[in-house]
Write a structure and sequence with these properties.
Blueprint (H helix, E strand, L loop, with lengths): L3 E6 L17 E2 L2 E2 H10 L5 E6 L11 E4 L6 H7 L8 E6 L7 H10 L5 E7 L8 E4 L6 E5 L6 H4 L3 E10 H7 L22 E4 L12 H21 L3 E2 L6 E2 L3 E3 L4 E2 L4 E2 L3 E3 L4 E2 L4 E2 L3 E3 L4 E4 L2 E7 L4 E4 L2 E7 L4 E2 L4 E3 L9 E3 L4 E2 L4 E3 L2 E3 L4 E2 L4 E2 L8 E2 L11 H5 L2 H12 L4
Parallel strand pairs: 1-4, 1-6, 4-5, 7-11, 12-15, 13-16, 14-17, 15-18, 16-19, 18-21, 19-22, 20-22, 21-23, 22-24, 23-25, 24-27, 25-28, 26-29, 27-30, 28-31, 29-32, 31-33
Antiparallel strand pairs: 2-3, 6-10, 7-10, 8-9
The structure holds uridine-diphosphate-N-acetylglucosamine (UD1) and calcium ion.
Uridine-diphosphate-N-acetylglucosamine (UD1) binds next to α2 and β10.
């Protein structure tokens, strides 16, 4: 393949999102859209990835180089801002708001563009609203014109073939052709699509790849498709999902085979789940949850930055944050790892086969040794040594004949006054 640079157009204002987050940083399955695009373009092995950004943003951590578009005058003007950094024979240009684009589709675009000055990826959408419509030259696979929705006639709006927003150009061609582009259109913008007449039309195999994100509804839709792809890959590798539509797994999550994910479960980025786990229903595994094999994490359990050894059970209603648990640990219902003192986060360590009684509070930093026990209802603030039981709760007293005495009105009134209203 020829030498190629990539330019990611990421300087648009994203006003249709109506929030304060720069559009390329909106997350899809736990990764910023811009990161998805970078992952896809890296697969064509470019010499250089350049992001065009507005003067207010800095996307330099994602790419090799950045270029600033001073004023948002349109996609053609955005590309022009990067021209002095484009030195390879070819250049692939991609909008930053299309996280579902795949490396395979980009490879197809680049290889099919051989012999053409320009090529564009297109798809046929059932609902093409909002996209630029592609008008071919007769029956040929070549662009006559791309018409933006806002400039389209009623007839043109009926066209289903849309511009995906990904192009491959011969660098010397586009540097010349862009000079002819004017802002003579409804939006008074310099449209990159006006440099596309004559471009080779290349069909996308999966129309979802083309989906762009301009508003919150499209962001939700793209998230759904991204998660579907993640789920499909996981299921193909032997992960069972009771109800994939109600399971939310980020990109960057690894799950071993034989693991069952039950409904309502969220697993966030940078988590690694072992084999034969049972997760959920309604478990929230936040970032950096790492489990061994045969781990059970049940209903309403939240974990974060937690290493959980094989054969460990955390069945119900617990928070496990900043923790390291050994193998074969039992964490009773309602256990809270108290990891935050208002200023700093601290770690809790629980050894192999330890037994954490229900409703224990483990106030970090604290260590429960191998085969140590905490009594139910304890607030543990000191380490519990090997084979010991830590018990830290008030001793129970039983008042004799209490029910009978409560039947006397005077006693009841006095008791309530003394014991229950004493704070007043
Ligand atoms: C664009 C295409 C449209 C295509 C659609 C696919 C143009 C004129 N239209 O429309 O044909 O069907 O994408 O999703 O290109 N940007 C800048 N600077 C600017 C303007 C835009 O960097 O001054 C960037 C944006 O950040 C974005 C990309 O260019 O990543 C496309 O801009 P956007 O406003 O999203 O264009 P669409 O209306 O979606
Ligand atoms: Ca867009």
């Amino acid at each position: 393949m020829s030498e190629i640079d990539v330019v990611i157009l990421a300087a648009g204002k994203g006003t249709r999102m109506k929030d304060n987050i720069p559009k390329p940083l909106h997350e899809v399955a736990g990764l910023p859209m811009l990161e998805w695009v970078c992952r896809a373009v890296r697969q064509i092995d470019p010499n250089n990835i350049i992001a065009v950004q507005s003067p207010d943003e800095d996307f330099s951590s994602f790419v090799d180089q950045t270029a600033v578009q001073k004023e948002q005058l349109g996609s053609a003007n955005a590309l022009e801002s990067a021209f002095d950094k484009v030195t390879s024979e070819k250049v692939l240009v991609i909008n930053a708001d299309m996280p579902l684009m795949t490396g395979e589709a980009l490879q197809k675009l680049v290889s099919s563009s051989e012999g053409f000055d320009a090529a564009v990826l297109v798809a046929s959408l059932k609902k093409p609203n909002g996209y630029g419509r592609v008008i071919p030259v007769g029956q040929r696979q070549v662009v006559e014109q791309i018409v933006e929705e806002k400039d389209a006639t009623t007839e043109q709006k009926k066209i289903h073939l849309v511009n995906s927003g990904v192009y491959c150009f011969r660098t010397d061609y586009i540097k010349r052709a862009i000079r002819q582009v004017t802002d003579d259109n409804q939006q008074e913008e310099y449209y990159l699509t006006d440099a596309l007449p004559g471009a080779k039309i290349i069909d996308l195999e999966d129309w979802r790849d083309t989906l762009g994100v301009n508003d919150q509804k499209q962001l939700a839709q793209v998230n759904r498709y991204a998660r579907q792809r993640i789920d499909d890959l996981l299921m193909a590798s032997g992960v069972a999902m009771i109800d994939p539509e109600n399971t939310y797994i980020d990109a960057n999550v690894i799950i071993g085979s034989g693991t069952v994910i039950k409904p309502g479960t969220v697993i966030e980025h940078d988590s690694v789940i072992g084999a034969d786990n049972e997760i959920g229903p309604f478990a929230h595994l936040r970032q950096k949850t790492v489990t061994g094999d045969d781990v059970h994490i049940g209903n309403f359990v939240e974990t974060k930055n937690a290493q959980i050894g094989s054969h460990t059970h955390i069945g119900h209603l617990s928070y496990v944050g900043d923790a390291k648990l050994g193998q074969g640990v039992n964490v009773g219902a309602g256990t809270i790892f108290v990891n935050y003192d208002g200023k700093n986060k601290h770690q809790t360590i629980v050894g192999d086969r330890a037994f954490i009684g229900s409703n224990t509070k483990l106030v970090a930093p604290v260590k429960i040794d191998d085969e140590a026990i905490t009594a139910a209802g304890s607030t543990i603030t000191r380490d519990v040594p090997h084979h010991s039981m830590g018990i830290a709760r008030q001793r129970q007293t039983n008042k004799d004949d209490f029910w009978k005495r409560m039947q006397h009105e005077d006693f009841a009134e006095e008791y309530v006054e003394k014991n229950l209203h004493q704070d007043k």
